[in-house]
Amino acid sequence: MTGTDLPALNIADLQSLLRRREVSAGEVIDALRARIEDVDGKIGAYLSLNFEAAAKEAEVANVDLPLGGVPIAIKDIISIAGEPCTCASKILHGYRAPYDATVIQKLRAAGAIPFGKTNMDEFAMGSSTENSAMKLTRNPWDLSRVPGGSSGGSAAAVAADEAFGTLGTETGGSIRQPAALSGVVGLKPTYGRVSRFGVVAFASSLDQVGPLTKTVRDSALIMNAIAGHDRQETTSLDDPVPDYTARLGKDLSGVRLGLPKEYVIEGTDPQVKAAINAAVKHMNSLGAEIVDVSLPHTDYAVAVYYILATAEASANLARFDGVRYGYRAANPKDLLDHYGRTRDEGFGLEVKRRIILGTYVLSSGYYDAYYLRAQKVRELIRQDFAKAFEKVEALISPTSPVPAFKFGERTADPLQMYLADIFTSPANLAGICGISVPCGFADVDGQRLPIGLQLLGKALDEARILQIAHAYEQTTDWHKARPPIAAIRQNV
Amino acid sequence: MAKTSDLDVAYVARLARLNLTDAETELFQKQLGDVLKYAEKLTEVDVSHVEPAAHALPIFNVFREDTPRDWFTAEQALSNAPRQANGLFIVTKVVE
After folding, report:
1. Residue A244 maps to which CATH number?
2. Is residue A401 part of a domain?
3. What is the ipTM of this complex?
4. Residues of chain A found within 8 Å of residue B52, distances taken between Cβ atoms
5. Are A302 and A422 within 8 A, CB to CB?
6. Is A285 within a domain?
7. List of chain B residues whose C-beta atoms are within 8 Å of the C-beta of residue A337
8. Where are the alpha helices (DSSP H) in A192-290?
């Protein structure tokens, strides 16, 4: 194993080398740094890097800890003490986080080394990472296409071997969808399972932190480190944390998988449909029983999601006022001018669009019609899932109706971009867990574009969907396929 | 449900403390009109016997002992301030 090959490893294989003392944590950091210097000019996954701090941590790394000596990249919405936390927004330009988020403390306690911050849609609002105020992130499978979003930098970094694993965040699909479009694994944990303390809030009743990795096992390893109760957060669940690797390798006999009939929708790419149908057959051949189920309120999920998420965002983003941190407009003539220009100049178009929508649906006279009604339909969506999970252990569907699209293809019509969340946002509304795993490729204009298979599990049943995803992954070769950029190997 | 034509982006922007440009106001008026029109489908659902879900967890009140702990120093709290002096945030003049 030479330094140039190291970044291609998954976390579990890297750990074996580290623990056998065949490589040192310092050599891993050097190899990763070289890899990022070679390819990130083409991909654009990172917003900031701190290899000096990472090298120092590597010197004292205890490789026998659960993630000892493993570098992990972090979406730029999660606070690392002393590092920038821009949320890919001009309004947080120059800001440095004064403390570590709980997930960073937990990663450090497990021996992991946070070393860089990844690009994203501004304040996690978007499905393509095109809403970043900083830079474009390109899909490693086709540089003319988006990596998905909002955790697009976290997904692209893993796909391009610029990270062994990353943290992303989800509000309506922002881990699973970029994982699908970039050909990696992405897990959205149950609402409340992973602490958001130190994570910049977008929509507080929906946000969750989760891993993006090369394999299902790696996601389980990161979950073992980051899941658990946090007294700093009132919505944190105080349930015991299982070993998320415990079920990996168990077969699928006796597992019932539900096919929601409402998830067969017009507008799903035929190649995506074919790949999911093949995956369902494959699951069946592995011993899973396939059961038809119904989630009758699916068609309302995107409308509910955009009313609730924007309402919560409009309140959460009120804190960006140019007083205590971040950007402040020059020479305001009075307080209203200070607020109005700071926020107009500091926020990008999509963020402003959502603040306006969220403010409107909460405003006097419209609250009942939009916000309250949406909360009630949310309850019906939650009940749909509860009923389905009486019959099955997990639900199976595409993660995204389409593979990666071209830059600019969907930016002109926000509603069309929002509708792409149809398969992912219901899980956030219901607070359940979900995972996306690679399940094939679409051939589009001579390019191979990854397709993601989604498995949804009931609340706190992450170990179960990891088991099913792992059984699928280990009996297929999709996760072994590497994007063209993986072939670029220069000397360390 | 309210008519989508009720949306007045310029008025809402003032509530949200956003000085939008005329071009942004016009763009959002059209785009958010489309989104609200799409959201009208929620009127099809009978919600007369449904309790609203604020979030998906069976968590209500969370209490802990009110005990002091170490937290930011004033210096740390001010470290990101756009303007500061004498240990204070300098803000735009509020009173005449």
Report:
1. 3.90.1300.10
2. yes
3. 0.94
4. 372, 375-376, 378-379
5. yes
6. yes
7. 19, 92
8. 216-226, 270-285
**Catalytic (active site) residue A75:** yes
Window 297-336 of A, Cβ < 8 Å to B: 297, 299-300, 302-304, 306-307, 314, 318, 321-328, 332, 334-336
Q: At what angle do helices A462-474 and A216-226 cross, to 10 degrees?
A: 160
CA dihedral A339→A344→A347→A349, nearest 10 degrees, is 150
Q: Which domains does chain B have, with CATH numbers?
A: 4-44 (1.10.20)
- With CB atoms and an 8 Å threshold, state whether B24 touches A377: no
Query: What angle do the packed helices A11-19 and A216-226 form, to 10 degrees?
Result: 70
Which residue is catalytic, options A79, A127, A174, A236?
A174
Rounded Cα gap, residues A307 and A3, in angstroms: 49
Is residue A314 situated within a structural domain?
A: no
Are the Cβ atoms of A373 and B82 closer than 8 angstroms?
no
Q: Which domain holds residue A282?
A: 6-297+378-485
* Residue in the block written with tokens 């609340």: A459
Which positions ≥6 away from A419 have C-beta within 8 Å? A267, A302
CB contact under 8 A, B52 and A205: no
Structural domain includes residue A37:
yes
8-state DSSP, A206: T
A90 touches B at CB < 8 Å: no
Distance CA A102, CA A79 (A): 9
Tokens representing A194 are 């992973």
Output the pLDDT for position B5: 59
Active site residue A174: yes
Find out whether A486 and A448 touch, Cβ atoms under 8 Å.
no
pTM (two decimals): 0.97
User: Which residue does chain A place closest to B13, by CA atoms?
Assistant: A356
Q: Is A109 on the interface with B (CB under 8 A)?
A: no
- Mutate one of A206, A229, A232, A356 to test the B interface: name it (highest B CB count within 10 A): A356
- Number of residues written out for chain A: 492
Average pLDDT, chain A: 96
Per-residue pLDDT tens for A299-357?
999 999 999 999 999 999 999 999 999 999 999 999 999 999 999 999 999 999 999 99
User: Which secondary-structure segment (H or E) carries A236?
Assistant: none
Place of tokens 């990130």: A40
CB contacts of B22 in chain A (<8 Å) are none
Put simply, whether B51 touches A (Cβ < 8 Å) is yes
State how many domains chain A has: 1
pLDDT score for A242: 98
pLDDT class for B52, splitting at 50, 70, 90? confident
| Annotated catalytic residue A16 | no
